[in-house]
Amino acid sequence: MKKNLLFFLFLFFSTFSFGQSVLGIPFGSSYEETKQLLLNRNVGEDMWEQDGAIIVVKGYIGLIPFNVGYFYFQYDHDKSYLYSACFSDLELTANQAKAKREIFADIIKEKYYDSINEYDFTQI
Hints:
By secondary structure, the protein is α+β, with helices and mostly antiparallel strands. The protein has 2 helices and 10 strands; from the N terminus they run ββββαβββββαβ. The longest helix is centred in the C-terminal third of the chain and has 19 residues, at 94-112.
């Protein structure tokens, strides 16, 4: 993988445990609720909708920036439920990406440990 375009982080959150949220948005929120909460919080520079998902560009989780965030929904007839959020970032060097990955992973584990799917980033 090219050093200047290292895919850094790809985490999925799920609703295996109740009462959790990401960016202050509770899992299980409807598509419209999630969209409105993202707009109200001004999470990123740009936001758009594609294939039933909401995509946020150049945002922050706390003080940690991300390039792209995806919010995925489960649909059941006329209802929708936020079930997954994925964030990724690109860094200029492999060392910067690894350092940021570790900081971000530690924060996510601390808050969402019982519902996180972990990936082996040493293979990247």
